[in-house]
Amino acid sequence: MNTPDFRNYKNAEIDKTIDAAMTSLRTITGNSMDLNIMNVKICSVSCALVSIEGMISTSAMSELIFRPIMELSAQKSKGNSEQVFDFLTKESLLAAERKTVFNYGDVIQFLFSGFAVIFVEGLSKAVVYGIQGYDKRSVSEPASEQTIMCAQDSFTETIRTNISLVRRRMKTPSLRFEMMQIGKRSSTDVCMVYMSDRASSDAVDRLRKQLKGIKLDTVLTSGYIEPFIDEGFGSSVFSQMAYSERPDMICTRLNQGRICVFVDGTPFVLICPSLFAENFQTMDDFAEKPFYVTFMRWLKYIAFFLAVAFPGLYVALASFHPEVFTLKLLLNLAVSEESTPYPLTVEVLVLMLLFEIMKEAGLRLPKPVGSTVSIVGGLIIGDAAVKSGLVSAPLLIVVGITTTSSFVIPSLYQQTAILRLVYILVGGGSGLYGIALCTVLLMININSMDDLAVSYTAPVTPFFSKGIKDVISRRSFRSYEKTHSTIKEYKLDEKGGSQ
Amino acid sequence: MKKRKIQVAVVLFIAAVTLLFSSFGRQVDIEERVLCHAMGVDYENGEYNVSLQVFKTQSMGSDTPLDVSQSNIQTVNCKGRSIRDAIEGCQYQIGREIFFGHLQIICFNKNTDFSSPEELFSFAIKDKNVFLGVELCLAENTAEELMNVQLTRGTMSSENFTQVIKMGVKNGVTVECRLIDLLSCIRSPQYIAMPVISIKQPLGDFAESHEEKSAEQQEPLLEIKKTALIRKGTVLESYLSHADASGCLWLTGKAEQYSDIIEYNGSPMDVRITSDSHSLKLDNENGRLVCRLKLSVLAHTSLDIRDEKSSDKVAALVKQRLEENITGVWNKAMYENRTDIFDVWRLFRHKYPQSYLKYADRLDEVLGSVELETDITCRVS
Amino acid sequence: MKKLTPSQFFAMLICTRAFSMMTFLPESTANALELMLGTMLSTAFQIVMICGMAAFHKRFPNDDPCTLVVSRSKWAGRGVCTMYLAYFLTVSFYVIGTFTYFMDYYFSDYIPRLMIVLSVAACGIYVAMSGLGVIGKTGTVLFVLFLFVTSILVISSLEDFTFVDFHLAERNVGKGIFHSAVSELARSSYLAVIAFLLPSTKGNAAKTSVYFLLTRLALVEIVLGFITMILGDYTLLAKLPFFALAAFSRTAIIERYDAAVMGVWVMLSVYKLGVYFHCSGRCLRYVFPKLGSGSGVIITAVIPAAATLFWLLPHKWESIAYAGLSPIPLIFLGGVIPLLCLIFVKKGARSDEKA
């Protein structure tokens, strides 16, 4: 029998003899230095314990596997392969996770996932034990979705830790976890999570099919998967998939009938489908009083409008429709623009691009050097540029308001950054006429999104009276007590009208 | 599917290119415009002399705010056969496009012919930027003289003109006339009342008595001593006094308040009268048109009036004063000058359309025969 | 094909009518009260037409006149589709031309007419290609925007209005009212859209149409009323009275509203074009079934856009703008054809029915 290698190992059956099996493993892994093989006799039967350096917990291995095996060997000096295998699989509890594998594909998959594998002489099968002990980041505060009055834990890069964070919050048997491996080379663990009594079965089936159809070599972040499950990824400005690194947010969405996709190696979980209005919701909304939530919600809507349209509107109105400004404002603008050398559109564009450069620099710089960016940005570009007459002071205010507003909704940052530039160009090119046309095109683009038969603009359009309260403010908890709405209510029927 | 994507991409590309480059090189940036706030038009010998007060800041810089202690204006003059012609002449002088979007006031001289507002204001009608609520006024001497007055009160000089008119209307000493008021009856008889602004120079001895003369003290003041009557385009020789103007405002229901002095128990007493309710109706009593005014006012006195008898006396005096003012202006406008500045003709057209059509060519006659009946109630607060 | 909900259908029709309302061109001899009374008369007549369409829809719930006649006879169907196509193309032609004319009037120094035609037609094509469901959803948002802007306009003008400018001092009031009713009917191109899109709407589309007619009546009367009460005779002088009213409205924050109104007007014009391009694209595909949906829309957009240039570029559009459309094609498409279908077409086997 030919020794399998890395090209054809997936379905190759495990060799019966230990030597042959170890030879095959070495060939498949290319004699990798991190492959640990320990030959041991258990009840006089030759066995081999295989693991990957740094992936397993040595203390767990010695306590949970070595000790019981040695005790067995001490009690029973002689035995046959089947007896040893039965002990390993049925008569002992050497680890919480234990499986029997029959081919090298599964062996490699489990080995590289931090399992230990025990081969038994004479058997064309092996047993794997989950005793992972690789280094992983501990649960910490979320980096991007800060809250004041809610949980301060977030997901990590380890999928199993993330699953446990969700499971301990939703103690219901209807919560389902479907694990699969995606990526021809990375075999990344990807877990589809949903509530069986809340999520649409059609949506679940469709998503499962889409995930299984991904033929990438590697899947390293959730972003790799998104284009395959978001139908409008290439044509829509916005995305109908949301990301979150908060377990409480994921649990909320799961309870609303969404399907979440966990990807091993990234703390950001995909939520599908998501709605446009949900970008303005945070977990703090559920911890604060409704009147304050309403105020903050509308502040966010205003912030989004400012972040996208403010500079473009300013350019359009100042260049084409100055009659809109009140007289005193217009006079101050005229005074400050009098000495600047470039047209207003160019000024705004340059400032916005400078801001994006500084933001990117601040993100990529090492932390000790990060403060330099704020000094350069604030003093040199801001103050000096105004004093030297390159840009006007009102323009800096516009840019300042815009950039601050854009940080209010981080989940839409990509879209606001690009749309802002588009609006500036169009506003400078054809005034409010161009901005109006651009807005219509954007509205059409947003309204075209209906992934998994749910319109992205629901519950505003199509209009749902129950859901609209969550757009304006937050429904009261007493209302949640009576009826709990799910995403299925927003599902479009076959002919595209709302149900 | 691919074909559709290509089609969509091409369509969006065309939209993008046209939007980005549609006004390429044509738009006028804010600093390339000259902002005009006030306009003066003097009509003499078949020519229009247009004087424009345009914005010109004394201090300039990208981080420098507007210096409100300066007048911030420059006056530009030009003559032309039409106002539009003269405006273009002004543009050539300045070398920039003049922007009328914040035009606040247009002053005319008394020789201006208002009989054809469509022609006279064609520059405003055709220009979408001109605000329809622009104030119109007459100058005591010439509009150019008014435009040359440099005032530092307010953000810029022209604010003073509109503030003087608005304060005058609020206190019942003059009648407001806006561009829309003129244009809204463009196909109807032209009866207009327009405030007359004059310049009041500061008192010479007061200025000399101080060692340091401040700029503010040297500045002239604006005042409205009278209101002009315009009948079928011509400014009449007869003017409305402050009392007449207040009567006109009470009659048309546009009065907010009016201050006067009445003789109470032989002494002068200040009274401030505010409007409570107003209704003006036109009735036909056996072929006789009667205009019925029902007015309710509140009188605020400078002295405390405690008893009912005194209160009734004051109320009667106020009522009498109002009746005098109202009747006086009615007689002056309707009978003496045949100028219906109270919009009675509109009431007539609204209520008796067929009669209006019948007497359309003899409207002056009909309006000249309308009688006025007043029913004024005054309460002393 | 995605269906419209009743609210989306309602919003779509209001948006298409709102454009016409904002682009209302009064004749120099028009009287506001006659226009308002004429609108009421026209609405009553249109409700009667809707009843005929409702009867047609009840009998043939899954068909519009085009698909019904096509299913019975290929050549008669093509004839009917061509009539609808011609009307939709004509309306598109008017919308593009009128829009460009007024945009040029207001912004003549900035944007050439050719660019306006190209940009608005391209955006209209994108709207049409997105599909009826998306058009319906967008209409809801635009309707709210239109209501918001109109409400601000009305509220900021409240202190200036007076009722005395309403009058019937005209020589022949009856004739004036009748003439206004006919003009209003001619402007009601949505009747053809209703007849065409009834099967694409969920719920009771005829009832929704009647609600739309009544809402439209209320809107038109309010807007006309306010324009007259505030602007008086100037209404007849201003090229676009709605804009003139917006230019006169003032608040402490925004000096003038005409720019904001212009923004909404532009959006409504593109939207209306999208609706008519979509309808005409569908008609063209009934006539030429092998044509793709995208290609159909593009062709039906290019034809009217190119045609308008013949009048716009030499500055001759004013003669067409004030001529207006005749109501006869509309009565034919919205009333006569459905009626003839009701009388002559039997409910039964379709010639194109597949097993």
Automatic annotation (TrEMBL), chain B:
Pfam family for this entry, one: Spore_GerAC_N
Determine if Cytoplasm is one of this entry's keywords: no
UniProt xrefs under Gene3D superfamilies: Nutrient germinant receptor protein C, domain 3 (3.30.300.210)
User: Where found?
Assistant: Membrane
Question: Record's superkingdom?
Answer: Bacteria
> Where does the Spore germination protein N-terminal domain start and stop, copy by copy?
27-199
Q: Which InterPro entries does the protein's record reference? A: GerAC_N, Spore_GerAC-like, Spore_GerAC-like_C, Spore_GerAC_C_sf
Show the coiled coil region(s): none
Q: Which UniProt keywords apply?
A: Germination, Lipoprotein, Membrane, Palmitate, Signal
Acyltransferase keyword on record: no
Q: How does it sit in the membrane?
A: Lipid-anchor
All copies of domain Spore germination GerAC-like C-terminal, residue ranges: 226-373
* Family indicated by similarity: Belongs to the GerABKC lipoprotein family.
Q: What is the protein name for this chain?
A: Spore germination protein KC
Q: Which organism is it from?
A: Ruminococcus bicirculans
TrEMBL record, chain C:
Q: Which UniProt keywords apply?
A: Germination, Membrane, Transmembrane, Transmembrane helix, Transport
Topology versus the membrane: Multi-pass membrane protein
Cellular localisation: Membrane
Which regions form coiled coils?
Answer: none
Pfam families xrefs: Spore_permease
The UniProt transmembrane annotation reads 36-56, 81-102, 114-134, 141-158, 178-198, 210-231, 259-279, 291-313, 319-345
Q: Which family does it belong to?
A: Belongs to the amino acid-polyamine-organocation (APC) superfamily. Spore germination protein (SGP) (TC 2.A.3.9) family.
Its recorded name reads Spore germination protein AB
Q: Say which species the protein is native to.
A: Ruminococcus bicirculans (ex Wegman et al. 2014)
